[in-house]
Amino acid sequence: MLSEMEACLNSRPLCALSDDPSNPTYLSTGHFLIGEPLTQLPDIDYTNVKMNRLSKWQIYQQQLQQYWQRWSTDYLQSLQQLHRWLKSTPNHQPGDLVLLNGNTTTPLQWTTAVNKHKHPGKFGNVRVLTIKKPKGVFQRPTPKICPLPCVNDK
Predict the structure, then answer these.
(1) Positive or negative: CA dihedral 101, 102, 108, 114
(2) Which of its termini does the chain have fewer beta carbons within 10 Å around, N or C?
(3) Is 136 a member of any domain?
(4) Which H or E run contains 120?
């Protein structure tokens, strides 16, 4: 269990690898360990199943999935720290790689997308983004989007 939790921690995206919108890849701590992102086969979601209905292996999977949900949510929220009144933050730019918040995924998988277009609000702040995922183009509000810093950013 501890080694799989460690894999969850080491799968987190640190920054975007390139500025190319057609190649939405990110650098993770797993790259430093094995030279590529960590992966895991998808499994059945046991998070909402009562524990007395599960076998020992399924309980193990349920605990891992619950840990993943709590940790990935906390990590995404740390990327979205609000400094609203302390300093102004730059708006999202088209072509930026972003992580989607609120999407439930299996452990070690992060939902990424590329920012295609920004929709500024009344005062010029971006409130909605048009993003491109492999399954299509969608509009999402900025609280559901976590920007990843680029390698070239300083």
Answers:
(1) negative
(2) C
(3) yes
(4) strand 112-120
Domain hosting 47: range is 2-147
CA-closest candidate to residue 8, choices 66, 51, 59, 57: 66
CB 149 within 8 A of CB 50: no
Within 8-76, strands assigned E span 13-16, 26-28
Is pLDDT of 1 > 60? yes
Higher pLDDT, 135 or 66: 66
Phi, psi of 22 (to 5 degrees): -80, -10
Q: What is the average pLDDT across 67-79?
A: 84
Strand (E) or helix (H) holding 132:
strand 126-133
Tally of domains within the chain: 1
- Residue 154 is assigned to a structural domain of this protein: no
**Which tokens sit at 7?**
């894999």
How far apart, in whole angstroms, are the C-alpha atoms of residue 88 and residue 75?
A: 22
Contact between 78 and 147 under an 8 Å Cβ cutoff? The reply is no
State residue 150's pLDDT score.
61
Q: What's the pTM? A: 0.72
